[in-house]
Amino acid sequence: MDVGADQFEQSLPLLQELVLGADFVGLDIEFTGLRTNLSGSQQISLFDLPSEWYLKTRRSVQQFTICQIGLSVFSSVEGESNKYIAHSCNFFLFPTTFGMLDSEFSFQASSVQFLNQYGFDYNKFLKNGIPYMNEEQEKRIKHNVLNGNWRVRSSLDKDQMKLVINEVTQWLNLAEEGDWMTLPGIAGFQAFEVQLVLRQALPNIWTVLRDQGVMVKKVSRQHRWYLEENSCDRESCWKEKILLSARGFSVFFQMLVKAQK
């Protein structure tokens, strides 16, 4: 089963249940590259100690990114010796872009050839990759969000965001209080960003996320204040949702590490 950004949050509870109930798991990780052309003492050598080999390999692979993780979860068959049921998933990943966090990474020609040979789907990687971040990036994002510095910029194209605001503004001119409109095709982390920008720009609207997209409601300023104070969508809740969504696959991977399978 292939899992992308549009399915990940819905699949997460089942995936966690499978991992926690497993006897062991197996991982296969694909990168956009493996080794840089290091020189001199930085080159990997057959004579390296294990600790030296690890540090050199780690330093080399850091300028690439993970594009896919294959996970197989094995659970023993009750009453059967050495028999297991396996559940397998492919996760397509893409680095989180949020605020000033905008990762740079390289491609290595030999790695691209290898991925092509085995039918790797670049559209799923580039268009629908699950966001993720490392521990250092997570600390930086958490600090910015909790200190109110999360209103920095949208990862959406600015022209696209202007079109969304213009569409809602034109609708507001004709709508009455209590009317709804739908912005289809917006989901996941992108949906949080759209709602944040709309709520900041327009004081007489309220937004909610539904399966069909972002729903916008025309409200009075007084009702808007009431919703902000009493709704589970108030800012403190939003910050937690933003952090969870921005962490993406990192949430699942950290759980996988703690499970020690």
Automatic annotation (TrEMBL):
GO terms for molecular function: 3'-5'-RNA exonuclease activity; RNA binding. InterPro entries: CAF1_poly(A)_ribonucleases (IPR051181), RNase_CAF1 (IPR006941), RNaseH-like_sf (IPR012337), RNaseH_sf (IPR036397). Transmembrane segments: none annotated. One of its GO terms (cellular component) is endoplasmic reticulum. GO terms for biological process: nuclear-transcribed mRNA poly(A) tail shortening; priRNA 3'-end processing; siRNA 3'-end processing. Belongs to the CAF1 family. PANTHER family: POLY A -SPECIFIC RIBONUCLEASE/TARGET OF EGR1, MEMBER 1, POLY(A)-SPECIFIC RIBONUCLEASE PNLDC1. This is PARN like, ribonuclease domain containing 1. It comes from Molossus molossus.
